[in-house]
Design a protein that fits this description.
It contains ten helices and no strands. The chain is an all-alpha fold. The N and C termini lie far apart (52 Å).
């Protein structure tokens, strides 16, 4: 779309056939995107729903929503077809402020929340190599093994999150946050001792940077995502 706009500003009219082809491609991609978003929102797996809510929280801060993005993209396909046929394009959908979206739709590094989530860097390393002297202590080693075991168990259990009743969903989120707090304390101790793997620390920093946020933002969005999930559970209709 940006390329076509630039051409028009330079007095070069776009090829109508190509405009329709691009509009078709955009519409197909949008259909697929909306389907993916819908499946994420209704997924039975906790981590999938959490990722959906995290992205929603990120968009929320930027004054955006999945619905608004979808409306804007649908409108763009219509505009492209109008340009191709040299007919006046329709006005933007009601409630969609294009200037606001352009101003607020970019993160700290210039990426929109949606593109940032899609292109985020991955973390492939572990926080520990296993050779750290702290693990010479049986207490530390036992704590790490228990924490890792509890983490794996709750992630596996969360695969059926969608089948839990409303109280079960709330209890699950609360329990997961307790495990996250234990990890925070454990990792903070290793960080203070200078025993966190440098590669892990570097990849974590790059991951946050690729999302256009800092650690404070990440924690805020994650907390907001979990609260959204609690709110959804609270709003579920009790069986009669």
């Amino acid at each position: 779309m940006a390329r076509f706009q630039l051409d028009m500003q330079m007095g070069v009219m776009p090829d109508p056939v190509r405009m329709n082809e691009v509009a078709d491609e955009l519409e197909t991609a949008l259909d697929s995107w909306e389907g993916t978003i819908g499946r994420m929102a209704l997924s039975s797996d906790f981590q999938t729903r959490e990722y959906y809510k995290f992205t929603l929280a990120h968009l929320e801060r930027e004054g955006e929503s999945f619905e608004d993005i979808g409306k804007m993209m649908r409108w763009q396909t219509v505009v492209m077809r109008c340009i191709g046929t040299n007919t006046p394009p329709p006005l933007p959908p009601p409630g969609i402020d294009l200037e606001k979206i352009m101003e607020k739709g970019s993160g700290k590094d210039g990426k929109s929340p949606m593109s940032a989530m899609v292109t985020a860097q991955t973390i492939t390393s572990s926080p520990f190599t296993g050779a750290e002297s702290a693990f010479d202590s049986k207490i530390v080693k036992d704590e790490y093994e228990a924490l890792s075991r509890d983490h794996m168990q709750i992630i596996e259990f969360g695969g059926n999150f969608g089948s839990f009743d409303r109280l079960g969903k709330i209890a699950f989120v609360n329990q997961l946050e307790q495990i996250e707090e234990r990890w925070d304390v454990f990792l903070a101790r290793f960080s203070l001792m200078g025993m966190l793997d440098p590669t892990f620390a570097e990849e974590s920093a790059e991951f946050l940077k690729s999302l256009g946020m800092d650690e404070g933002d990440f924690r805020l969005f994650l907390k907001r995502a979990h609260q959204m999930m609690r709110d959804d559970a609270e709003g579920e209709i009790l069986p009669t």
